[in-house]
Amino acid sequence: MADNNLLVHPQQGQLVHDVNETNSTLAYVSLKVLALEEGEAYLETLTEQECCIVALTGKITVTEGHHQFNKIGTRQSVFDKRPTDSVYVSAGHQFGIRADSEAKVVLAYAPSTKELPTTFIAAVTNTIEHRGKRANQRLVHNILPDSVDISERLLVVEVYTEGGNWSSYPPHKHDRNQLPVESLLEETYYHEMYPPQGFVFQRVYTDDRSIDETMTVENGDVVLVPSGYHPVAVPDGYRSYYLNVMAGPVKKWQFHNDEAHEWLLTKD
């Protein structure tokens, strides 16, 4: 964990990332990233958490009870820019993952005691959006949006941003439980870059500047957003990918723009 407690670097081995309530300030979002060799397996029993298993790259087989989802996953690199397959598993269930090829898997968690159906989220069901204009354009794959009632609290989305563009911009936040105006959602960003020696800049800041960190983020890093605005800037010549996990008391993404920069939305 970096000194600012918001930037987490990857580790060697099968468990690349393990962000949870014991080593972060997050209460609603936990995250694991697994790097699996072909034939490797992973087993976990969920207690008071729900989980979205994202086949980030490669092929995996996921089992839960009588469910078995064989050789899911659609891409060798996230920069193939095609949606991928995922599996939702609710609290109280055990799941297993077997790597059918070299694979990277993201496990996204939120607190939950509600038993819901284990659900295969096929790549073809991901909605695709193009957001922004000028130097504020990005491509979005919605894996588990708030419009889908598969999960209790979890939201999961992938975002692609080309070099020279900004993302999560103009700056917005979602850290107040004041619906319908704004929702309280913690968030994590799992970042990759192409080419992989690239980097992006991400700032996380609150109105009162009790949090105000600007980070140089490299391939494989995770950025934590417990509260505040969180824009991302991508240098020319590089492409950015990040996977967002969000969760809070209510599964609703209702954000509030930084009023100092909201004028950008009306600029031609």
From TrEMBL:
Q: Which SUPFAM superfamilies match?
A: RmlC-like cupins
- What is one GO biological process annotated to this record? inositol catabolic process
Tell me the keywords, alphabetical order.
Isomerase
Molecular functions (GO terms)? 5-deoxy-D-glucuronate isomerase activity; glucuronate isomerase activity
Q: Record keywords: Isomerase included?
A: yes
Source organism, top-level taxon: Bacteria
**InterPro entries recorded:** Deoxy-glucuronate_isom_IolB, KduI/IolB_isomerase, RmlC-like_jellyroll, RmlC_Cupin_sf
One Pfam family, short name please? Answer: KduI
- What EC number is given for this enzyme? 5.3.1.30
The record's top EC class is isomerase
**Which NCBIfam families does the UniProt record give?**
myo_inos_iolB (TIGR04378)
The name this protein carries in UniProt is 5-deoxy-glucuronate isomerase
Source organism of this protein record: Brochothrix campestris FSL F6-1037
Q: What is the lineage of its organism?
A: Bacteria, Bacillati, Bacillota, Bacilli, Bacillales
